[in-house]
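User: My notes are a mess, but here's the protein and L4RZE5RM's SMILES. Can you give me a structure?
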Amino acid sequence: MTEQLTTRWVVLDIEGTLTATSQVHVVLYDYARPRLGPWIDEHPEDPRVTEAVDAVRAEAGLPADASTEEVVRVLHSWMDEDKKAAPLKTLQGLIWEQGYARGELTSEYFPDVVPALKAWRERGLALAVFSSGSVAGQIASFSNTTEGDLRPFFRHHFDTVNAGPKREAASYHAIAHGLGDPLPSEILFLSDVPAELDAAKTAGWQVVGLARPGEPYEKADFGLHRTVASFAELEIDPA
Ligand SMILES: CSCCC(=O)C(=O)COP(=O)(O)O
Ligand SMILES: [Mg+2]
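Assistant: No problem, the inputs look usable. Here's the predicted complex:
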């Protein structure tokens, strides 16, 4: 079934919406896992790294002088449980940035994604991203994809640091402000996670859930939210 919508902005989640969850949990997490310890030890002067490490220690209840090994043990356990903790996302993003720049990582999207993004842009819609992945990691991931460099597609990037938690309405108010304060009803959020859709809806946004076949949220309870299995089911006109 086709869902017809009218909007100015389309804000997109990444994992489970643009890309398969396995791309993040297997490809990207496996790339980051063995590199976390060396990255921390090799960047003692980088405030992004030292602040993230301090934040891990604090959040995990480790002493302020806990070793890299202890910090990495916590980071690995967070990846095992897919905890979307900001300091983990910061460190992963830096490592992925290098991986994409070196050509060791290439992003792959669901087949319906890039054709839809192109069509929406051609229609004059503006695109932005809101993901738990850090802004640096997001931008890097769009730089080297199986379909080329997609960075020019997106006007804004938001993460849990510059916007806030994905399951809180306040984050969507902050994003709307970052987009230049369009009417909330002129922003459409696409995500696979019902709680994220709830929060965006509370902020007055339009929302559509992605119930993609084979993905963890395929059979989730989306409540009253409209859902599609693919972007091909979305027909979006500019407001
Ligand atoms: C290269 S972006 C990596 C995405 C990521 O780390 C992540 O946790 C995705 O979460 P999302 O909020 O996009 O579902
Ligand atoms: Mg998601």
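The CA atoms of residues 12 and 175 lie 12 Å apart.
User: Great, I'll file this with my notes.
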